[in-house]
Amino acid sequence: MIIREDLADVEPYRWQEGWEQRIPPGTAVIRLDQNTQPRPPAWYAGSAAWLASVAVNRYPDSSYLRLREAISEYTGFPADQIVATAGADEGLTLCALLTLSRGDTAYARQPCYGLYEGATALAGGVLADRPDGVRLTWVCSPHNPTGQDSPGDVPDPNGGLVVIDQAYIEFGGTDLSGLVRERDDVVVVRTLSKAFALAGARVGYLLAPPAIARKLEAIRPPGSISSFSDALAVRALTEDRSLMEADVAETVAERERMRPALSGLGWQISPSSANFLFADLGEPIEPWISRLLSAGIVVRTFDALPTCLRITIGSPAQNDQVLEALGLAPRAPAAPGERTGRVERSTRETRIDVEWSLDGSGRSQIAAGIGFLDHMLTALAFHSLTDLRLSCLGDLWVDEHHTVEDVAIALGTALDRALGDRAGIVRYGDARAPLDEALCHATVDLGGRGHAAVDLPLRDVRVGGLPASLVPHFFDSLSRAGRLAIHLQGHGDDDHHLVEAAFKALALALRQAVAVDPGRAGSLPSTKGAI
Ligand code: PMP
Question: 160 and 218, same structural domain?
Fold first, then answer.
């Protein structure tokens, strides 16, 4: 036998399988089987040019010092207690290889994350049914697949290594990393795949007592984290972390919305401290899986648990689609003062996610991948006192056209959805905004008909990072999708000033037009009686 006898039956690790053939052709696929965040990090959209500066002809720094320093700053652990790994999975595997010899036993409470068995087997060990006398104990907290915070699973010192997998810790549960300082037999495993939304980059890390960290470092494959992933991870950790925290907070809020909603089907769902829910349906899951797959939604199932499924918390719009596919009301009708439009738009050219709340305070988080467009949309949200969140991954290597056009369409669609039937609004807005020598006049009508008349004489062929021709095109696309008339006239010596004044004037006009008019008393602002 060429291969090791004890590996003869080992199967590859796979995410959910067999769904591709069951999703109707043309239906957008929503992967809720991998426990990943619904969007890439906010800064990622514009990072292509920056990533091109990574020296791909050289190996990465095999000590990953810069990365470990960034992790140190994030976790409070010194760099010599941190081992950077190619995903938490490599960290888990290294722990098994470091501790287990042929025939040794390890323990994990069942059900457990599949890799514990795989890593144990790779090292030549076997998973035992009982925790006594094992050389390695796998603890998962928050627990996959149940989502439960499980600090009680940590055994007292038992002569073996205790590996505590906290891949989901940013979403809730008890931070057990303090045990690494208190005990010499505990290693904590973490990842940038989940909260930091970098699953595709494959970066994780171990927090370990110094002596164990040195040995783990010694047996790791050299340079297993690519230079690109190293750079992405450092950036994720050193960027403004409030962006990551806001995304995590949204996932947590959505989790708390989804649990009672899904429990309405009679499913048993325990509280979760992670970014997923584990449901025991108490009956065969197949009819429900069929409904979900018909709507393009992939969830995780388990051969050994035929009445259970695990569902990752997606974006608010994706979660609404889940509820709809299961025959549940997506969400309570918007309360007065809660006018939010959500759009997810995916084509071969762009992937866009927008949430626009008309009754906001001017906050925004914009990542369209074009700095100048981000700047303009930030101004649009700020001066219209609306809250706008937008991310776009577009084919900027072609040019900016698809991104600018599709962002405008998605924004317009979000505006249209947020306005609902448009009853009770002011409808019209008219405002001017100067920026130094530039002055722009904007008039809008939210009357349900899309039209843009844009007169902004730009001097150069490009403004900011954009071809000048895309400026009127943006307003045109916005007006059609948003079903509003936009009139813009301005002049100025500096193109940047002029376009910025246009966005600000538009913001001020929109602010008036979307406002609720008390005199209208909720009636439609149209003599036709329809918008
Ligand atoms: N631990 C647990 C409990 C997980 O669920 C996962 C991934 N699903 C991992 C570790 C692996 O994480 P990574 O992407 O960092 O390898």
Answer: yes
